[in-house]
């Protein structure tokens, strides 16, 4: 989930986390489907060798950060310098396309670059259709609202999304749902990510309605992947298992 997926929320690397192991993953009735859902939810999230969440790798590494941030920087810089919408849109599209071409030439996975290009195309189309530079940022409002709502629903039905993701990465699968403390911890972790989406809307919507394009663009950049990465790290800490009487958990 990023600002593009934001424009939402937020694309990431292509490899899933480790397979769950241990005696609790022995194929209890109905557990296979639930673990399969957790596996898909956790795709793209990574751990470091010391067992912490690898935030940089999860958001795509340095290259992924560049693919997410640079087109927006180029659009904002070009529009600030020229006050001309069309050249600014062309510049942003050219940069996003260049990232995709570079991946094609190097034969590296295209997922994140294509997601970035698609996000820029959608934003450019919206802005071009209205002739307003501020509307470049409108798709991000909808994606933030959609992701935030989905996270809230996952909490409401007691399947907090970050439990699916982190439970798989930690080898808990979905068995944390049988432990009220773990369920509460993962609900709190999901609330941390909801707070990221809510903060974006709370800060950026007033700037949009006040026609503050430069301030809106700057807020979008700062509150994009950097804020998401911070929220992800906080969610990981909040949901960290505590040592039980019978010994530490994974």
Contiguous low-pLDDT stretches (5 residues minimum) are 2-30, 244-250
Helix content: 55-70%
The helix/strand class is: mainly alpha
| Topology order in helix (H) and strand (E) letters | HHHHHHHHHH
Main sheet characteristics? none
Number of strands: 0
Please report the number of helical segments. 10
The average pLDDT is 81
Q: How far apart lie the N and C ends?
A: 25 Å
Query: What's the number of structural domains?
Result: 1
| Rg result | 20 Å
Gross morphology: globular
Percent of residues in beta strands: under 5%
Give a concise summary.
Keywords: Membrane, Transmembrane, Transmembrane helix. This protein is mostly helical. Helices cover 65% and strands 0% of the residues.
